[in-house]
Design goal:
- The structure holds 2 protein chains of 2 kinds.
- Chain A contains 11 helices and 10 strands.
- By secondary structure, chain A is α+β, with helices and mostly antiparallel strands.
- In chain A, β9 and β10 form a beta hairpin.
- In chain A, α5 runs antiparallel to α7, α7 packs antiparallel against α10 and α9 runs antiparallel to α11.
- Helices cover 43% and strands 14% of the residues of chain B.
- The two termini of chain B are 44 Å apart.
Chain lengths: 379, 399
């Protein structure tokens, strides 16, 4: 598979870019932030997204989706990264849709996937409990009770957790925190008794929630996949999410970079365009190389996911690690090269810095993924 | 790609794999560790071992010293997709290149693009067969990074040029049979406009070379002197005074070649090599957390660069490559290779300090470490590469 977009993928990119840049430039996020919008994204825009087939992009055609792949999901994520559009795409259409498609039984798929496709159902994965991404450290307990289970524990940073209609909750049905065995995924209604949701306003003005589960009762039908065997399903779904976030970071890095290069070509100091200064030229060139390398690693990871999710872990780790490092560098250079203007709220560049920080934490930061590579290579 | 095409490619893959398994001697399936492991060809070439000879001759007979060149010039006539398959299959078994040569990497592509029929027929088959070893006469004492200010002059004398001047950093000039050389044919023209690209035999009267001893203890480079060397004008490749076009095209290939020098793809992971000397803790991790972190960061960057190198080829095939992209790759690849050897030295500790002993293969590691320092200088310094990216790709203002 060549590491360039096909004609169809380029067309998808163009249509996503058209819609997103038109309806959701950075000012869209700024407006939602300043008006303290209770939803945190535009439902109208989400429905337009769904009508264009983006909401169900990864959903198989038999459930009303487009049946496209992870490369295509990455294409859309990259465009989202360019304008920082807040949307349920990552949580619902990429992560939750993948969890349901890959782990769901026939009844679960036919109940939820068509609603994901038409944009009427928002869903999210509730996984991390501590400050850092540590999926195996899951300790939220699910104990057998009657015909089902009772869930007790808490989750931090559940993306879109305050608006989701369906929570996919990682819980421990056996074993101890740190072990892969004994993890189970549950489908839980946010309206179930004992669920307490607190929206957290994050640094980047995107949406997440802290969620507590106090003896929440679910029946046996709400198990996604097999009891105690959720580890492999979770690994795959997380890798899909990581690939998608890496693509978002490529988009935001590239956008910050383009804005910065344009600024270097227009801003004068000491009687010269600052882009004439070699110190800045070389830093810009280094950043360009970083972004190109990260773009290639991310495309490779997404193609590997399309080929076989179970075999894509190393490529995904490389992509997410590189994307984190590159995005951090891109936003730092962006702010620095914009000088004092880069520090102002009025200027958009700070929005990118904030979003990059959140993307870095989502599904494991660069350190986490670099460690995965070291372990896989046994040193 | 259609289903028929991809089926044909899979057939090619299985046939190639079978052929390589049957024909590549086991001794040639290990990474090269010393100069003797590399076969450079040429009039005075000697094989360091029988397996090296067998491997070279079998690959040459198949046209696979230059797999993607046309068959009429001794190549394998492979398509880009087939060539990718062959490279992947060779990497899979760790097969060494049968022949290393500036003729293959640099001059060949330039001749294929700019050479006339006679030049192609004369030189390409001999490059493919490893009969003639080439060196490159580009740099001069006052024209390194600022290559276009070169002064070696070629004055017209009937059907010939008379060449006078000096080159420096001429890799393996003391072993080379022929040179591809940049000379000034019009001293009055603007700096880039008076240069020609010319080929001549190193045994011509008036050519002399002197090796330069480097910090690695080796002398891969030479100073090369031309004292009234007579060369027919028919040896100019491309148009007289338009040699800069050829030179630039060739430099792209040189940069792509240098950026790939660090890529191994075979052999043990760096972290496991480090474990030999550093040791491991109870969990089997390197017993030096900082070093382990550096290696892991390196591995991420190396894997990402490999993806980017693959993408560069795919972009070129799709006609979407920026002509200056090889500068970006050259910059990153050489900086990364320097990092690799800093890590290897650090991982090796005192064992990596041995300069002369059987045990250390005559200091192979420290000598290789020192050699890598030239990577970000030769073929255009890292600073020149960044300048090219800034100006040609990013279109930043200024000189």
């Amino acid at each position: 598979m060549a590491l360039v977009l096909t004609e169809e993928q380029s067309m998808l990119r163009d249509s996503a870019r058209g819609l997103i840049s038109d309806k959701a430039p950075v000012s869209h996020l700024r407006h939602l932030r300043d008006s303290k919008d209770p939803t945190g994204f535009s439902k109208e825009l989400w429905h337009a997204f769904a009508e264009m087939g983006f909401a169900g992009l990864l959903v198989p055609e038999e459930f009303g989706g487009s049946g496209l792949g992870y490369v295509e999901a990455g294409v859309v994520m990259e465009e989202i990264g360019r304008t920082l559009m807040p949307s349920p795409f990552l949580a619902t259409s990429v992560v939750a849709a993948s969890a349901l498609s890959r782990g769901g039984n026939a009844a679960q798929k036919s109940e939820y996937l068509p609603k994901v496709s038409n944009g009427s159902l928002l869903a999210t994965l509730a996984i991390d409990e501590g400050a850092k991404h540590r999926p195996l450290q899951t300790s939220l307990q699910a104990v057998r009770a009657g015909n089902g289970f009772k869930l007790s524990g808490a989750k931090a940073l559940v993306v879109d957790g305050h608006v989701a209609d369906l929570l996919i909750v990682a819980a421990r049905t056996a074993g101890s925190p740190g072990e892969r065995e004994g993890l189970t995924l549950f489908l839980v209604s946010p309206r179930a008794k004992g669920v307490a949701i607190e929206r957290t306003i994050m640094v980047d003005a995107h949406n997440a929630a802290r969620i507590e589960f106090a003896n929440v009762e679910v029946n046996a039908d709400s198990v996604l996949g097999e009891v105690d065997q959720g580890g492999a399903l979770l690994d795959g779904v997380l890798d899909i999410g990581r690939g998608a976030v890496a693509a978002e970071m490529v988009g935001l890095s590239d956008e910050v970079f383009n804005r910065t290069v344009e600024y270097l070509k227009s801003r004068k100091q000491f009687g010269k365009l600052i882009g004439e200064f070699q110190a800045l030229q070389h830093r810009a060139a280094e950043l360009y190389v970083d972004i190109e390398i990260t773009r290639a690693a991310t495309m490779k990871a997404l193609q590997a996911l399309d080929a076989d999710v179970a075999k894509a872990a190393l490529g995904v780790a490389v992509a997410k690690a590189r994307a984190g490092t590159t995005a951090t560098r891109a936003v730092q250079e962006g702010v620095q090269m914009h000088g004092g203007m880069g520090m102002t709220d009025q200027f958009d560049i700070g929005f990118f810095m904030k979003r990059a920080r959140v993307c870095e934490e989502l599904f494991g930061d660069a350190n986490y993924h670099t460690e995965q590579l070291a372990r896989a290579r046994e040193y | 790609m259609s289903e028929t095409e991809s089926a044909e490619l899979e057939t090619f893959r299985s046939e190639t794999r079978a052929w390589l398994e049957a024909n590549c001697p086991p001794e040639m399936r290990k990474p090269a560790t010393s100069d003797g492991d590399v076969f450079w060809g040429g009039r005075n070439a000697k094989f360091s071992s029988e397996p090296q000879r067998i491997w070279f001759e079998r690959m040459r007979d198949k046209g696979w010293t230059v797999p993607d060149w046309p068959r009429e010039y001794g190549g394998g006539g492979l398509s880009a997709a087939e060539h990718k398959v062959l490279r992947a299959e060779m990497a899979r078994m760790g097969a060494r290149p049968p022949l290393s040569s500036f003729g293959i990497w640099m001059l060949g592509p330039a001749l294929l693009k700019y050479g006339n029929d006679a030049q192609k027929k004369e030189h390409l088959p001999k490059i493919a067969a490893g009969e003639i070893r080439w060196c490159q006469g580009y740099s001069e004492p006052n024209a390194g990074s600022d290559l276009a200010s070169l002064q070696t002059r070629a004055e017209s004398d009937g059907d010939d040029f008379i060449i006078n001047g000096q080159k420096i950093w001429t890799s393996y000039a003391n072993y080379a049979d022929w040179i591809f050389c940049l000379v000034r044919t019009d001293p009055t023209a603007k700096k880039h406009d008076g240069i020609s690209f010319i080929l001549f035999d190193m045994t011509s009267k008036g050519v002399s070379t002197k090796p330069i001893l480097l910090i690695s203890g080796y002398s891969p480079f030479c100073e090369t002197f031309f004292d009234n060397v007579r060369v027919p004008k028919s040896h100019v490749v491309g148009t007289i005074n338009r040699g800069w076009d050829v030179a630039k095209y060739l430099l792209q290939h040189e940069r792509a070649m240098i950026s790939g020098m660090g890529e191994r793809g075979v052999g043990r992971p760096l972290g496991q090599i480090a474990a030999d000397s550093v040791g491991t803790d109870a969990l089997g991790r390197l017993d030096d957390a900082m070093l382990r972190g550096k290696i892991a960061n390196f591995d991420v960057d190396e894997a990402a660069l490999a993806a980017c190198a693959e993408r560069a080829v795919d972009l070129a095939k799709a006609g979407q490559a920026h002509p200056a992209f090889s500068s970006a790759m050259k910059y990153y690849g050489t900086e990364l290779n320097k990092r690799r050897y800093e890590i290897l030295m650090s991982a090796g500790g005192v064992d990596a300090l041995e300069w002369e002993s059987e045990r250390s293969k005559q200091g192979a590691r420290p000598r290789a470490w020192l050699r890598t320092k030239a990577n970000s200088i030769e073929g255009g310094t890292s600073e020149v590469m960044l300048g090219i990216v800034a100006k040609r790709i990013l279109d930043l203002p200024g000189a």
